[in-house]
Protein: Nitronate monooxygenase family protein
Amino acid sequence: MRTEICERLGIEFPIFAFTHCRDVAAAVSNAGGIGVLGAVGFTAEELEVELAWLDEHVHGVYGVDLVIPSKYEGQGIDGLSPQELEDKLAEAVPDGHREFAEKILADHGVPALPEGEHHNQLLGWTATTAGPQVEVILRHPKAKLVANALGTPPQDVVAQVQSSGRLIGALCGSVKHALNHKNAGLDFVVCQGTEGGGHTGEISSLVLWPQVIDAVGDLPVLAAGGIGNGRQIAAAMAMGAAGAWTGSVWLTVEEANVPPAQMQSYLAATSHDTVRSRAWTGKPARMLRNDWTEAWERTDTPDPLPMPLQMMVALNGVKRGHRYPEAAKDVNFNPVGQVVGLMRKVERSADVVGRLIEEYVEACERLNKLNGG
Amino acid sequence: MRTEICERLGIEFPIFAFTHCRDVAAAVSNAGGIGVLGAVGFTAEELEVELAWLDEHVHGVYGVDLVIPSKYEGQGIDGLSPQELEDKLAEAVPDGHREFAEKILADHGVPALPEGEHHNQLLGWTATTAGPQVEVILRHPKAKLVANALGTPPQDVVAQVQSSGRLIGALCGSVKHALNHKNAGLDFVVCQGTEGGGHTGEISSLVLWPQVIDAVGDLPVLAAGGIGNGRQIAAAMAMGAAGAWTGSVWLTVEEANVPPAQMQSYLAATSHDTVRSRAWTGKPARMLRNDWTEAWERTDTPDPLPMPLQMMVALNGVKRGHRYPEAAKDVNFNPVGQVVGLMRKVERSADVVGRLIEEYVEACERLNKLNGG
Structure:
């Protein structure tokens, strides 16, 4: 199953593991795939710490996933520091949204954060805040791959990353987005079906993948959205994918820094328990349906704001969910795809990689046998 | 790609073509797959005519698809004739629904049906009306396969069909439904992902298929939802499917009795142009989004009624759409899956079968090559 992108990255299997946890990223890279660390939750300084740790623990290479949305509130405002941009955007949050968010958390008995515990509100959800992250990445030679989650990255970022000998790609949920990526000269696209976790479009993987693969010609397409076992990887590769981009499945591995109460939510969920909602980030993202998502869905409650304003409203809830996962279990932010229904037990990351390969081989053999081979 | 169910049916390829058009059904059966005629639009008398025609034109075997919903209004009302049941159900349609439907059509300039042109309203959407259809099927020896679209068929129907040497199966959109089918002793399940056309659940094919395949053990699973090319069939077979159940792709074949204006709607649509809506049948079904579906989605308009009441309201629109497809092009009932984005030209049915096989073989070869074969 070694494809050209494996050669370019120097990895054994085209298994890309998106995760917010450096331990998982390292484990996958060291098992022959490649861990891709989600950077959006980190300041540039924090990201530096994470990547330094990865440099030390990864034998080969790893990747970093940024979020520079192609459309967001505050876009085109130049010359402001991240804090100044945050202050400016905060003015655009209408009255009532923060109060509503606070009420949902209070109604569920989720304690407030300890007094004095400050957190920035904007995170890496803009070009202004993601820019310094790119500079951090370029200082880490094992950070060999950069992916952008929500659109074609700005041309200067593409040039910076590529001229440093790294590969840069981006996620897409439509043929149009994929062609934008190709025209911007990206090295690969990650094509994600609607069943995927986090930000996701409306077209299913089975229908989207072949369309994107045909549309972008020889640009490698990594198949994303719904992949949790090796049979699905065989399916993706049979359709012409250059690899498998996985995410949800790494939320229930032993190494994941997911609190037990939240991990339990994932393990207990079926594929019917997810919803595509704007209730956390402001753009449609798939997550477990719960009292938070339902509250923002109702017609008699505030509508979610555009990115990044909604996350500025919701981030306090994310942080309180991290700190008090038991209390927050019905209002937590649990991004995950429909494949959650296949996630039934906690495994070691390396074992997941091994299982994916094994299932892939079995699926190929099944097909060969069927064809009289 | 010959699987056990091919042997049992005596067909060459496990390609199942659901269609409302006998010409398409015959062409697919004669090309080595099996055409499955949708019976819901026909009275028992009309179905008799269709199957007699098929007997004459099909060399091998064909199938028939019924709609006996496992839940519907009027369920359990016994001892009424179809007309009596229809009259009784008509009383349950609230004031305003028929007027609203009529207004949508009138606003778009869709002419009324010629005066005196009567049509029954209930069709085959109940056990009462589908029962006589089963009797018709049993009189036609080449009608070797029966599938039920909306739930496990009643036990007496299962017994009748199986004791006559035919196979009976049913569609499912969840593991739970699949297990109900298995427990009822059905011969196969058709497992349809949310991207499929017509009545469909919420879980994508890629995620649903492997779960159902694992859940039902050795019961053959036909993969449905999103299949329009042979690469997707290879994907399904790699995941363990026993065959491919297709539908949408037969709407734009040369033999389809789809009016040119409607066929043009399908050919022009992208995968983004479908919606899962209750606006025609009362149960969620995927179709092209248009002014009709939007009208019923709005919060200031009547909500769609449960099955079969909504179709009793909407059927006049279906009939007028058939008769005046040009006028009705923005309010027509256009059931189709997301695979519509792959349907770009009119092909002959036999050529579609040939193309599916060819693409399947190519996909298998791609996989073999990747694996060093």
